[in-house]
Amino acid sequence: MLDRHGIPATVYERDTDPGARAQGGSLDLHPESGQRALDELGLADAFATEARPEGESLRILDPSGTIVGKHAPEPGSGTRPEIDRGALRKLLLSRVPDSALRWGHHLTGTEQLPTGGHRLHFADGTHSDCDLLVGADGGRSRIRALLTDAQPVHLSGYLSMFIADADRRRPRVADFVGPGSLMALGDNLNLGAQRSGDGSIRVSVTIRADEHWIDRQRFDTMEWPEVVARLHALFSGWAPELTALIDACDPGTLVGRTIEALPVGTRWQPRPDVTLVGDAAHLMPPVGDGANQAMLDGVMLAHALADNRGDLAAAITTYEAEMLDRAEEIAEGAAQMEQMGLAPDAAERLKSFFG
């Protein structure tokens, strides 16, 4: 976006190349945020080609397998189509000039320069100087500490598994999941399944547990049947069509991590030489807003810099005033959804919430 405004910028990326790691499942892009960003980048048509409108469908079930809520727009009427994260990344990278992208740069520290700006130090021993440092380095941001001592708070444990080529290899499970996603909620647990554009299905388990719960399970020391048995024990008494999602997952695909969020309303005093975007600025529970808000952050920051050329203080003050107000409102809603989604009676709560 900055390049479109004629403002030189360099992106330092820790990954060694675009295919260095899997990008995860799919996400829905919202008209007022993620889709707006793509439109301003001239990528609306490309997004329409890559998006999967059918992926917007969602079913919410209780532990008995009863559907308590669903969202299934008629063809052509949906507003938040899904796109695979890998496809979205390719679209965004298509708008970054090759000369402005530095792969394989793992940031290890920053240094305030006496004349203003920052020196960035990387793991390979190199460094680079900048007038404005934009921290887009995620929930565990190193750059955030330059602005605030706020730290992410632990919320839950999260496990992800994978079913490749689901329609051919696991047709009954694929049919049960459908074209979009489902969530089965209750007992402080969330068992989810989401289809991706490549025919795979990602199965997830979210549990209200302390930050060391995943480590204590020692899943990495277990044979796959032990992993499956341990997960079945979590969902004792749940409908067999739900626990069949676990049985269908490909052996060895389990990955665990903790879910965290910054305190709602996290703010700081603006500085003319550093700012934040995305999870670095406003890490939220993963309920569908994070990537959308990050993309909108980039658009709004670019506009602020273009509208206040030569005055970084004014640009950052303008950007952060809008971004922090917007993020606080969105984060409040995300926190509410996260609380409801892992409540003992989560399915009924969400049914009432959505009317």
TrEMBL record:
The record's section on Gene3D superfamilies has: FAD/NAD(P)-binding domain
| Keywords recorded for this protein, A-Z | FAD, Flavoprotein, Monooxygenase, Oxidoreductase
- Write one Pfam family the protein is assigned to: FAD_binding_3
Database matches in SUPFAM superfamilies: FAD/NAD(P)-binding domain
- Domain FAD-binding, residue spans: 2-332
Molecular function GO labels: FAD binding; monooxygenase activity
Annotated Basic and acidic residues bias: 1-18
Region of interest: Disordered: 1-32, 52-82
This chain belongs to the protein called FAD-dependent monooxygenase
Can you name the source organism? Amycolatopsis acidicola
Q: What is the lineage of its organism?
A: Bacteria, Bacillati, Actinomycetota, Actinomycetes, Pseudonocardiales
